[in-house]
Amino acid sequence: MDTTERAASLRAGMLERFRERIADDVAEAMLTVPRHVFVPGVPLERAYGSGPVVTHRDAQGVPTSSASAPGTVAGMLEQAEVRPGHRLLEIGAGTGYNAALLNHLVGPDGAVTTIEYDPQVADAARSALAAYGADRVRVITGDGTLGAPEDGPFDRILVTAGAWDVAPAWREQLAPGGRLVLPLRLNGLTRVVAFEHSDHGLRSVSAHEDGFIPMKGIGAVPEQEVPIGPDRELTLSIDDERPVDADALADVLDSEPHIVWTGITRPWAWTQNVDFWLASLPGFCRVFVNSEAVAAGQLPRPKDMWGGSWGTFSGGTIAYLTARRTGGTDEMPIFEVGVCGLGPQGESLAAQVVERITAWENEAGDRVDLTIEAFARDDEAPTGDGHILVVVEKKDNTFIVRTTV
């Protein structure tokens, strides 16, 4: 079997992992466009594997650009509902693979413009698109926060990097009846949101959990990291610039951890939007726990060891979600959710978080739809329907996250 045949076979295998979740046109595009052309030098098996492929790193080795996991790419395309003839803007060219898929979907009567902040990444994407034969895609080197007004308005705008806010340019360049799809960060929680125009602003038609490399340029807002302990036993990751009294937290590790178990058992991946329910707590953040501190028995493992567990802080006290296995199989283990409190008010803060989780379980459980609305800061946000989980004020927009049961 030659390289072309192997690649085609691997593409078909890649698609099998999520074929039932996507429409025929998205599946056909992903079967047609050769992903390996956009990640040169990467073995075919890895190019068509289930994970992302990092293509560029900074001087510290932190990934700055990648080809997103195929399932993530397919999910965004499904949310976008791209049609032949659409004019399309992509923010974040990356490898060029996504732009090639979009070019396939819009067909000869459509148009795709993609903007990349990093000149080196833009050049690589331009070369890969040319090698594949997608020369019609216009690659711009620049700041995607400003959009591309000369090519708009756009039927679809896709942002393929983590966004902290909805840029005014995206709203202005989105055509009537258009759709904006972006990974939106709210209080440290990311949802890939498909927005459409509403009477007063933008309203989501879908929202799914996923993770992306953060945006660069004028729209970039780095998370605030607060290390705690001589060996960074804990790190708080906070999504805004709220003041943190690091001195008050310095002694939080001097107390014994206090764990309160909820009695709620779920598979490891359980979220059900409970994170946004907790996001209304003052001091909501992500808590990263050093694996060596966990291995030494100094601290209980967080519910999410690698992505940061949901937590909160108040004064000199921290609480974060933990878990213990209660059954299930190796493929689908079952865990009981708990909360670990640290510091002088650890028991009390842990109890508050447990109370919040229990209330969610009793009031919503698995029967929740999430709606996210974006209103320009100068406009008054309407009350709307559903239970408001959290209101987030950003530079250009007010976001309201609601649930309906």
Quick tags:
single chain, 405 residues, alpha+beta, Rossmann fold, 11 helices, globular
What does this structure look like?
- The protein has 405 residues and is of the alpha+beta class.
- 25% of the residues lie in helices and 34% in strands.
- The protein has helices spanning 3-16, 24-32, 44-47, 70-80, 97-106, 119-132, 168-173, 246-249, 274-278, 291-295, 346-363; strands at 53-57, 63-67, 87-91, 111-116, 138-141, 154-159, 174-186, 189-197, 202-209, 224-228, 234-238, 258-267, 284-289, 309-314, 317-328, 333-342, 369-376, 387-393, 397-404.
- A 10-stranded mixed β-sheet has the order 5-4-3-6-7-8-9-17-19-18. Strands 10-11-13-14-15-16-12 form a 7-stranded antiparallel β-sheet. It has a two-stranded antiparallel ribbon with strand order 1-2.
- Helix 2 crosses helix 5 (97-106).
- The chain is globular, with a radius of gyration of 22 Å.
- It is found in: Cytoplasm.
- Belongs to the methyltransferase superfamily. L-isoaspartyl/D-aspartyl protein methyltransferase family.
- GO terms for molecular function: methyltransferase activity.
- Its EC number is 2.1.1.77.
- Give a quick account of the main beta sheet: strands, pairing sense, barrel closure: 10 strands, mixed
What's the structural domain tally? Answer: 2
Mean pLDDT: 89
* Weakly predicted, low-confidence segments: none
| Helix/strand/pairing category | alpha+beta
Helix segment tally: 11
Task: Please give the radius of gyration in angstroms.
Answer: 22 Å
Class of the largest domain in CATH? Answer: Alpha Beta
Beta-strand proportion = 25-35%
CATH architecture descriptor text of the largest domain: 3-Layer(aba) Sandwich
GO molecular function, one term: methyltransferase activity
InterPro entries: Methyltran_FxLD, PCMT, SAM-dependent_MTases_sf
Subcellular location: Cytoplasm
Keywords: Cytoplasm, Methyltransferase, S-adenosyl-L-methionine, Transferase
